[in-house]
Amino acid sequence: MLEVKNIVKYYGKHKAVDHLSFSVDAGEIFGLLGENGAGKTTTFRIIMGLLDATSGEVMLDGKPIDYSMTDHIGFVTEERSLLTKLTVKEQIIYYGILKGMDEDTIMVELEKWLKRFDIPDYMDRKIKELSKGNQQKIQFISAVIHHPKLLILDEPFSGLDPINVKMLKDAIYELQQEGCAIIFSSHQMEYIENFCQKLIILVKGKPVVDGYLKDIKKAYRKKTVLLRGEDLPFEKIEKIPGVISIKPIRDEYELKITDEQVAPKIFAAIKNSNVTKFDVTEPTLNEIFIEKVGNVHEK
After folding, report:
1. Which of 54, 119, 156, 231 has its CA 20 to 30 A from that of 16?
2. How far apart are CA 30 and CA 217, in angstroms?
């Protein structure tokens, strides 16, 4: 279990992280979100023991994270951190030995992962000869070769096509089932919604959203009604208090409403029309992110 307890980090007078606390249990995938410069990278570096927090503490399995604990952490960075002149085998052996593994064990694990990612013949290929997507696979292997207790994934799907995204997703779910605690960060909100039950959104180092995704969505009052039909009375619908906007999307209409109490009023207005779809949906995480981050900037 990872515990981040009230960490603060200053760079000079600039506060990069502002009293941040969260926990990630074994087998849990936790989302850490924020725009560029929000404090995510600083937080990751503190968790990995690369930076000292100005105050607060980080614990893994009840112990402060120091060099004796970092062997239990894996990190997939947004930027490539591979040594491009090395072969895949040389690269993974190098990283595995740094994590305290012996070479025989590394080779067994590497062969397994290369086969899993459908690149079994890449063992002796140089990193610089690989496509961006296959480099990302090797980056992932380097982060998990030692079976970490904690895995940090920062934009892990960068450069991957849909088939390879699925491969990596399946690998992440398998690590979760094995009990690995995972922190997931991405600007692609659909990935966060797919993976994470709990999340935090940071703005200028400070949490502005914190909790379970289902509770966050429930607390966010704005909803969407999706309508499809003929002879829909839009002039009447527009006059209903709480209807924010009406937008055509392909063969249906998207109505933004202030809260779900407005939905029955819309249904009453269209009950005599030929309606083939009436669906009240929760807001997307993307909508919540844009509003919460935007509201802080407007203050």
Report:
1. 156
2. 16
User: 65 near 49, Cβ under 8 Å?
Assistant: yes
Calculate helix-pair angle for 162-177, 132-144, nearest 10 degrees.
10
Tell me which amino acid residue 126 is.
K
Tell me the whole-structure pTM to 2 decimals: 0.84
Q: Which of 185, 144, 137, 143 is nearest to 161 (CA)?
A: 137
**Domains recognised in the chain with CATH numbers:** 2-213 (3.40.50.300), 221-282 (3.30.70.980)
Q: How far apart, in whole angstroms, are the C-alpha atoms of residue 266 and residue 241?
A: 10
- Whole-angstrom CA distances from 65 to 6, 74, 291 are 15, 13, 35
**Distance (Å) of CA 250 to CA 73, 238, 246:** 46, 20, 13
Of 125, 135, 5, whose CA–CA distance to 76 is shortest? 135
